Amino acid sequence: MDGDRASVLGSRVLRMEDHRLLTAGGTYVADLRVPELAGAAQVTFVRSPIAHALITGIDASVALGEPGVVAVLTGRDLGDLNGQAGQPMPEPLLATGRVRFVGEPVAMVITDGRYQGEDAAELVSVDYEPLAAVVGFGAALADETLLFPDTGSNVVATGGDEQGAGDAMFDGCDVVLGATFPNQRVAPVPLEVRGAAAAWADGRLTVWASTQNAQIARATISGRLAMDQAAVRVITPDVGGGFGAKIGTDRDAIAVAWAATRVGRPVCWSETRGENLVAMTHGRSQRQTVRIGGTRDGRILAYRLDFVQDLGAYPRGAYLASLTRLMTSGAYEIPRVRCGYQVVVTNTTPVDAYRGAGRPEATAAIERAVDMFAAEIGMDPAEVRRLNVVPPGSFPYTSPTGAVYDTGDYAAALDKVLAAAGYRDLRAEQARRRERGDTMQLGIGLSVYVEVTAGDHASGETGKVEVHEDGTVTVSTGSSPHGQGHATSWAMLVQEELGIPMADVTVVHGDTDVIPRGTGTYGSRSLQLGGAAVQKAAAAVREQARGLAAELAGATEAEMELDPRLGIWRVRGESGTELEWGKVAGQAGIEGLVADVLFVAKSPTFPFGAHVAVVEVDTETGKASLVRHVTVDDAGTLLNPLLAEGQRHGGIAQGAAQALVEEVLYDPDGNPLTATLADYATITATELPSFELVASQTPTAVNPLGAKGIGEAGTIGSTPAVQSAVIDAVAHLGVRHIDMPTTPQRVWAAISAAAISAARGGQ
Amino acid sequence: MIPAPFSYYRALSVDEALDLAAEHGEEAKFLAGGHSLLPLMKLRLALPEVVIDIGRLADLSHIRDAGDHITLGALTRHHDLEHSGLLARELPLLACAAGQVGDPQIRHRGTIGGSLAHADPASDLPAVVLALDATLVARGPSGTREIAAADFFGGLFETALEPDELLTEIRVPKPAAPRWSFQKFTKRAIDWAIVGVAVQGDAVALVNMGETPLRAAAVERALADGAAPRAAAALAAEGTRASADINATRDYREHLARVLVARGLQEAHARA
Ligand SMILES: Cc1cc2nc3c(=O)[nH]c(=O)nc-3n(C[C@H](O)[C@H](O)[C@H](O)COP(=O)(O)OP(=O)(O)OC[C@H]3O[C@@H](n4cnc5c(N)ncnc54)[C@H](O)[C@@H]3O)c2cc1C
Questions:
Q1: Are B177 and B32 in contact (CB under 8 A)?
Q2: Which atom of ligand 1 is nearest to the CA of B110?
Q3: What separation in angstroms does the CA of B167 have from each of A251, B32, B106, B162?
Q4: Which CATH architecture has domain A406-450+606-763?
Q5: What's the whole-number average pLDDT of chain B?
Q6: What is the mean pLDDT of chain A?
Q7: What is the mean pLDDT of the segment spanning A181-207?
Q8: 20 to 30 Å CA-CA from A755: which of A383, A570, B13, B252?
C-alpha cells in the first residue's frame, strides 16, 4: 500500500448491515414479493407421523376436492427423479414404500393459500404398516431391525482404528481410566426456519432458498432433478441463521423446486417451527467411549476414543465421524492415540453439520477424559493440561491422526484465561463453600481446545471487485453470509486496499447468475478464503488502476501513487495531478476495472483457545447456573474484533446450551418428545452471564490475512468447560461424571447416587 | 402451527359473550389473552368451531379494595397484577407469582381468568388462589354463582365451569398473617414450573404435583400440630400424584416439593 495512515484492519467497525436489518427488516424467503413469484401456489408437506413403517397406499382424492387445492404430488409423480438410484441407502425426495423418521416428507399439497394447504394435508390419507423402530445406539448396532434391508446392516461405515483392539497401548501407565457417555443430539433452531420458492419459465428454474451456499444448492438441485447446471438459478435472499443445517439444500427444497416445473405456477414453501424441529437436520448424537492412561505425576501417555455416530434415518452426515477422528487428541501431545468409529442409521431425524460439525464431539470427549484423569491422580486440572498441551515450539505439529496444526501457543492461552478468571481465587472461594457445606456450591470448569477451520481449503472461494465510473465498488463474493457480517468485512478490505470508503462498497452474494462460482459459508471458512479472495481482487484492481491512472496522467506506473486516505491517484509529489477513482475506472473502457479471484489456501487452519466456566449448583435441587464464562479464542489476526466477538458470543451460548439444557429426545418408538419450543429448551439470555472475552491473536501463514476461522470455536470450547464446571461443583460429594445436558434432575440424581454409594462405602 | 378453521366473534359486553356461548354451546371457547388457547389451536390439539373473544371487555379488568377482600376482574393481565401497588401491599404473593409467569410478552397478554379457567396444573396462579382461599365468581345463563377455589379445579384442564359460564371475578380475602412465599422451580426463566410452592400464612399449595393444584394437607396439619417447618416440609409429597415428563420423574418432583416447601416456609417465616 502506498503512503501511510491508520489502517481500518483490526478495528471495531460497526456492522453495515444492521441498520437495514434492525429497521426495515430483512427480506427472507417468506417475505419475497418479486414479480416472478406473482400468483405463486403454496406448498404444504404431508409428513410421516410414524418413525418406521411401510407405506401401503396414498389416497389424495378427498384432499383434491378441497377448496384451493391445485395438486397433490407424491414420490410416484417424481418417477426416476425421486430416488438416488445406485446409492446403498438412497434418500428419496418424497418417501415411497417406506418412511424412516417422524417428519419425513411423503407428499406435497399445492394450494392457492397456505391455510388451505394445512387443512387439505390432513385429508391426504396415507396407509402405514408400522415396523419396529430403531432408536438409540444399541438398537442400531443390534441389526435386528434394518432401515435398509438390502444393505444387511444399519452400520453405514466403520473407520479409524479397530474397535477394542490395542490394549497394549496402555502398557506402562500407572493409571488407566475409561468411561462411556453420550454427546447428545441437539437441534440447530435457526431463527428463520427453512423455506424455498421456485419459478419455472422458458426452460429455466429459478429457486429462492434459505441456504448457506447458493452455488452448492444449485449443484444439488440440478443434479437431483437431472438438469443442466446452467438451467438452474439459485438466489439467496437474507438468511436468518443456518448453523450448518442450511449447507446446500435438502430434499424438501428440491421437491419444492421440482413442483414448480409441474404445476404451471410458481410455488412457495415456508415450514412451521414444528416441522423445523423434526425435519431439519439435527446435530451431534454420538456415543463415546474414552480410555486414558498416564503417570501419577500427570503425564498422559495413551488415549483412545471409540465412538458410534448416529446419523438418523439417512446417512447425509457420514463425513462427520472423520472430522471427530481427525481432532481426537485435541490440544495435547500424547504419545499413543487411537480412534475408531462406527456410523449407523436410526429411525430419527437425519443428523448433519451443526456448529462445529464433528470437532466439538472430539473436544468434549478428550476434555472429559483429561478431567477424569486429573481427578484420579488428584492433580489440578489446569496443571494436567499445562503439562500435556503441545508445546509452543512444536508448530507446525502433526497430530497422531494426521492433522497439521499450523500455529498456536496452547499453554499461553491457558495461562491467560486462568489469570483473567482469577483461577486461584475461584478455587479458594470453592474451598470455603465446601468447608461451610453451603447449599450453593461453586464449580470451575476448564477446556483447552484446538479445532480445524476451512477444512475444505482446496475448493477455495471466489471474490470479484469492480470499480465503477462513479467511483463506487461492487464486491461479488462466493461466500454467502447468514448473519456473520460479510458486507462489513469485505467493505473493510476494499477500503484498506483502494482507499474507497466502506459506504461506497456494495457487497453482492448468493445469486448464481451473478456469481456462478463459489462455495459458501460453513466450517468457519469465509474470511480466510472468501475474505482473502476479496483482498487479492482489490489489490489486483489497484495495480490495474495504477496503469490506467498513469495513462491518464501521462506518467509512468512507478510515478503514480494512491492516497489511501482520500482514495485519490496522483503523480507522486505533483499537486494538481489528482485523479478520482471514477475517472480511472472510466479509462478502463468496456473491459471495466475489475478483478475476479479464486483464492485457494494450501491447508486448513487450526484456531485454538481455552475457556473457564464458573457455575453455581444448588445441591438440594440440582440446578446449575452459569455465573461466569471467561475465554481466550485465538483465531489468528482479527479483521474486525467486534464481529469476531459476536461469533464468540453466539458460539459460547450455543455450546453452553448443549452442556446445560438442550437435548432432542425420542420415545422408544421414535416419536419426537421435543417437537415444540416449549419442550426443546433452547438457552435464553436469562440463563447466561455476560461473557468475559480475553484477546489473543496468533497469526497463521496459510492466508495473506493471517486469519483463522472464529465461527465455531466458541461452541467447541464452551461445551466441555461448562459440563466440567457442573461436575466440579459436586465433585467433593463423590460425583465423577454427569452426562450432558446437565439438567437439574441429572445433577440431583448424580448427587443422590454418590451419597448412596458413600453411605455403602461407610458401612 | 396453523389452526383448523373456526368462526370468530368479538363480544362487546358480558351479556353478549354469554349469549354467544349459550348459542354455540360445547363448540365454543372464550378467548381471553389467548396464550393457552391459541398454542393448543395451532397444534390442532384444540379444535373449537367458534371462538368468542372477550379480550375487550374492559369492565372485567380491575383490581379493587373491597374492605376485607380484594376483587380482581377475570381479564386482569398478569402484568397488571405484577405491578399493582394495592396487591404489593395486600396480596404480595399474587403479585410475585404473576411476575414469574412466562416472560414479559406473555404477562402482557395472559389473564388471571384465563389461567384459572385453563386449569393447567403447571400454571402458577391456580395454586396461588388455592393458597389464598379465593372465591371465584362465574356468570351463566341462570345467573351468578360463587365457587370456592378448593372446589373449582376438577382435574387435568377441568374446572367447575360449564361451557356457557364465564368467569368474571376473583375475590381474595386479605390474609391475616403477612407470612408468604412463592417458590418456582424451572429449568429456564421462561419455563413453566417443574414444581412450585405458594405459602400464605399456614396455607401451603403446590404447583404441578398432581392433575390439579393441591393443598399440601399433610404439611398444613403438621404445622397446625406445632411441627417445626423443616419437619413439616418433609411431608410435602404426601397425598400428591405428580406425573413424570421429560423434565422430571415423579421421585424428583416429590423431592423438589419437599425442598421448596422447606424454603417457602423458611422465607415466609423470615417475612413475619
Ligand atoms: C410460552 C408460554 C409460557 C408460559 N409460561 C407460564 C408460566 O410460567 N406460568 C403460568 O402460570 N402460565 C404460563 N403461561 C400461560 C399463560 O399464563 C396464559 O396466559 C394463561 O394460562 C391463560 O390465560 P389467557 O388469558 O391467555 O387465556 P386463553 O388462552 O385466552 O384461554 C385459556 C382457556 O381459558 C378459557 N377462558 C379464558 N378466560 C375465561 C373466562 N373469563 N371465563 C371462562 N373461561 C375462560 C378459554 O376458553 C380457554 O379454554 C405461558 C404461556 C406461554 C405461551
A1: no
A2: 19
A3: 49, 11, 20, 10
A4: 2-Layer Sandwich (3.30)
A5: 97
A6: 96
A7: 97
A8: A383
Q: Whose CA is nearest to atom 53 of ligand 1?
A: B35
Same-domain status, B45 and B106:
no
Contact B189 A686 (CB under 8 A): yes
Q: How far apart are CA A54 and CA A317, in angstroms?
A: 24
One domain for residues B88 and B152: yes
Over the range A358-391, which residues count as b (16 or more CB within 10 Å of their CB) and which as e? bbbbbbbbbbbbbbbbbbbbebebbebbbbbbbe
CATH classification at residue B44: 3.30.43.10
Asked if A68 has any chain B CB less than 8 Å from its own CB, the reply is no
Q: What angle do CA B181, B186, B189 make, to 5 degrees?
A: 95
Q: Which CATH number fits domain A132-187+281-389: 3.30.365.10, 3.40.50.300, 3.40.50.720, 3.40.50.1240?
A: 3.30.365.10
Tell me, yes or no, if A49 comes closer than 8 A to chain B by beta carbon.
no
Give A37-56 pLDDT, tens digit per residue.
Answer: 999 999 999 999 999 999 99
Type of residue at A212 = Q
A2, pLDDT greater than 50: no
Closest chain A residue to the Cα of B253, Cα to Cα: A745
Q: Class for domain A18-25+455-599, per CATH?
A: alpha beta
Question: To which residue does cell 464464562 refer?
Answer: A629
Nearest Cβ partner for A745 among B2, B4, B248: B248
Ligand 1 centroid, distance to A665 Cα (angstroms)? 27
**C-beta atoms of A114 and B246 within 8 A:** no
Q: Which three cell numbers stand for residue A386?
A: 499445562
Residue A505 banded pLDDT, cuts 50, 70, 90: very high
Instruction: Tell me whether residue B1 is in a domain.
Output: no
Residues B72 and B88 in one domain: yes
Containing domain of residue B235, as a range?
Answer: 180-270
Percent above pLDDT 70 for chain A: 99
Q: Is B105 helix (H, G, I), strand (E, B) or coil?
A: helix
Closest residue by CA, ligand 1 atom 38? B114
Is B185 in contact with A623 (Cβ distance < 8 A)?
A: yes
Segment B26-77, tens digit of pLDDT: 999 999 999 999 999 999 999 999 999 999 999 999 999 999 999 999 999 9
Packed helices A410-421 and A423-436: angle between N→C axes, nearest 10 degrees: 50
- From chain A, pick out residues whose CB is under 8 angstroms from the CB of B259: 620-621
Atom index in ligand 1 nearest the CA of residue B193 equals 8
B169 and B185 both lie in a single domain: no
A453: phi then psi, degrees, rounded to nearest 5: -125, 155
pLDDT digits (tens, 9 = 90+) for A599-638: 999 999 999 999 999 999 999 999 999 999 999 999 999 9
Give the residue range(s) of CATH 3.90.1170.50 domains in chain A.
Answer: 32-131+189-279
Spacing of C-alpha A573 from chain mean position: 51
Within 10 angstroms of residue A87's Cβ, the number of other Cβ atoms is 11
> Measuring from atom 27 of ligand 1, which residue has the nearest CA?
B114
- Topology (CATH) of A32-131+189-279: Aldehyde Oxidoreductase; domain 3 (3.90.1170)
Do B231 and B152 reside in the same domain of the chain? no
Q: What is the mean pLDDT of residues B113-140?
A: 98
Selection from B149, B172, B138, B156 nearest residue B241 by Cα: B156
